[in-house]
Amino acid sequence: MTQKFDVVVIGAGPGGYVAAIKAAQLGLKTACVEKYQGKEGKTALGGTCLNVGCIPSKALLDSSYKYHEAHEGFAIHGITAPNVTIDVKAMVARKDGIVKNLTGGVATLFKANGVTLLEGHGKLLANKQVEVTGLDGKAVVYDAENVILASGSRPVDIPPAPVDQDVIVDSTGALDFQAVPKTLGVIGAGVIGLELGSVWARLGSEVTVLEALDKFLPAADDAVAKEALKILTKQGLKIKLGARVTGSAVKKKQVTVTYTDAEGEQKQVFDKLIVAVGRRPVTTELLASDSGVTLDERGFIFVDDHCTTSVPGVYAIGDVVRGAMLAHKASEEGVMVAERIAGHKAQMNYDLIPSVIYTHPEIAWVGKTEQALKAEGVAVNVGTFPFAASGRAMAANDTAGFVKVIADAKTDRVLGVHVIGPAAAELVQQGAIGMEFGTSAEDLGMMVFSHPTMSEALHEAALAVNGGAIHIANRKKR
């Protein structure tokens, strides 16, 4: 007899595992399917984010920044550390330990909440049946009242630079270098390329980033993108815009990359090359031909605002559906879907999903950019405050960047918060909380912020929207 569940989730990434736990907490008999095998040859939960994405990259970013600070930033504090060295293998081993702890933590949460783990490859069949094929090749079919598709994404491959995970690597391979490459090429100046490029640049690599687009960080506010390009270039990243890679050739553990730019065809030799040109949804082998679920022209699963697919009772969340490929977006979609299955009228505010790039300084934003609002014909008032005028930032020797608050000129409602600087992700989240409750710039300006904190920069930027900043000169109104 076929075993039946109220909910079967395919994929145990930040969307899938959260959806499974939430569904179980709501009293639904829940199973979660996962095929990914970790370094120890065992099923590892957490998806790309925990295993080879968000978490391990942040571990390396933090380790590399501590080394960089000891090497470059201690002297100003009166601390001398002339012989600081980096043990890359130990750094990578620490990263692996964090991943192991967190993926094991998800397994513990499954047990605590009564989620059944089904190990193997999950495939949606007709009539909401799920086929799970184990590592031994044996397939078992399960019945489900509801199915949540959360199979995630994988790095995009490009023909001019085929990944071999030795000399030419994707984002996964870039997390496992055992030594600092003398020269490093990065194809793609997006979030992943800038973060991984930053890691190895801090440790001594000569990093060149090749970006096909002529515009740097097009999703970010123009002022933030301009400042980021200036700061990252000063840090040593050679960022070449309008550089389209056309070919690569590996010889004697080096790769020669051919690309075209405004000056014609160029060639450059690197010890390692990271391909970081984006990610694509994992929907191959996920759906039987008669499953009834439809895909769009790019391979994403078609869903409505509540993540419902074309089949009643089948949902899809995270990187396999429209919207930003962000772990926190996937998780909240998982919660929303689980609650809707349980009969609640859960909603999700897609307008206030924060974005973060974990370079140093961090780059983060929520809401709309100034250029997008102007394109929509919305009149705005803008307030900015530089960290160079922040006492807390000065004390920390971390004064690069600024906070920017954008408000509707008529209503004063905050429409966007954009930060490049220390603790940018945390400051933007403060903005997101306020915006969720419909805050005005005046509201933020009237709140009491503790002193001295980085948060005061948000306070001052909000005050500056209406010409009331205290610790910088306000712009004269025309």
From TrEMBL:
Other comments on record: The active site is a redox-active disulfide bond.
Database matches in Gene3D superfamilies: 3.30.390.30, FAD/NAD(P)-binding domain (3.50.50.60)
A Pfam family hit: Pyr_redox_2
Co-factor binding comment: Binds 1 FAD per subunit.
UniProt KW keywords: Cytoplasm, Disulfide bond, FAD, Flavoprotein, NAD, Nucleotide-binding, Oxidoreductase, Redox-active center
Organism classification: Bacteria, Pseudomonadati, Pseudomonadota, Gammaproteobacteria, Pseudomonadales
UniProt main location, coarse: cytoplasm
Subunit and partners: Homodimer.
Localization: Cytoplasm
Domain of life according to the entry: Bacteria
Binding site for FAD: K58, G122, D319, M325, L326, A327, H328
Amino acids binding NAD(+): G188, A189, G190, V191, I192, G193, L194, E195, E211, G278
Boundaries of every Pyridine nucleotide-disulphide oxidoreductase dimerisation domain copy: 353-462
MF (Gene Ontology): dihydrolipoyl dehydrogenase (NADH) activity; flavin adenine dinucleotide binding
E.C. code: 1.8.1.4
Active site: H451
UniProt-recorded name of the protein: Dihydrolipoyl dehydrogenase
